[in-house]
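Quick one - inputs below.
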Amino acid sequence: MRTVDLIELLAGDARAIPRGVANRKLLAALIAGGLVTFALVALWLRCQPLLAAAHQPWFWMKAGYTGLLTIAGASLVRRLSTPGARLGAAPLAAALIVLAMLALGAGQIVATAPGARLALWLGQTWKVCSPLILLLAVPIYAFLIAALRALAPTRLTLTGAAAGFLAGALAATLYGLHCPEQAAAFAATWYTLGIAAATALGAISGRWLLRW
Amino acid sequence: MLQQDETEERLRPLMIRSLEGDSGAHRQLLGILGRYLRGYFGRRIGSSSAEVEDLVQETLLAVHLKRDSYDRSLPFTPWAYALARYKLIDCLRRRHRSIQIPLEDAGALFAAEDAEEGAVRNDLERLLQRLPDRQRTLIEDVKLQGLSVEEAARKRGVTAVSARVMLHRSLKWLNQALRDENR
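Output:
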């Protein structure tokens, strides 16, 4: 078939594309994956008493940390799904948020009596925290990958990493509904580690999963 | 740089109209893009290569099917360049050749047009034969006889809507088949 004939065919299929359709696809994936993960948290891990927790600053400290990372991750994924788009300020913003949290955690350690530091840092659940966040990120990641394949990512490793990061950040936010740990040092370490693991897995698998 | 701005000013309005469903603008845009793509791929993998025209067709199909990834508030030429570069790298990778394709600005694609169509290796014509009869005859009516989709639909006694759906599905299928062939 000659290229001019192909163009004739494609012109015959020139349908109108609604505005914002890419945003809607990604948002739908985030909501669908988020609901699956929320169901896992609510039905399997169980939420902590949320009314009491909502009055505590530590609850909002953790939610704010992972919530801001979720916003930065969403911006990154959106841009990477558009060929040729610049990354903008999101990578810098994400790095600054993590650094601020690490500083907050380090400050808390320093302000704590040496004998009590290890207990503060490890809490009761340090062994399961990061693995659970990684596990909870999987459904969100899967929905994001499906949506991204229908769009046109051209930098696959980077896009995979961004999708893993976003999935990890949202999973950590939802995990916060369950996790009763209160220390900034705890969240700065184990939450960050879980999100970092999701980012790494996204970078490795994105190369293959995102090909279109 | 100035020349690239002119290209942007020429192509972006066409893309916007194409996204509004204007098939004339869509045809014109793909025609211009095809000539630039031929020039770009020719410079990268050798203009005598039989793969050039395949890649042009594959990329035009991708531009067509991936239009919803374009953000109307952003410039068009970087979008088209990123797609073209992705298709080029994807093609080379599938053939297990590692050639570094530098990440340049969109000017690399919009440097020179080449209107001379080359021969195709993976003929879409041959792939068409694998489509179900109804889809194939619809495509042939539109392509060879230059009928509009509505006219072709009337001729074959189907509704215009289902003819459009059929055509879109066939194009998606061709896009996939073309990729698989190239493996």
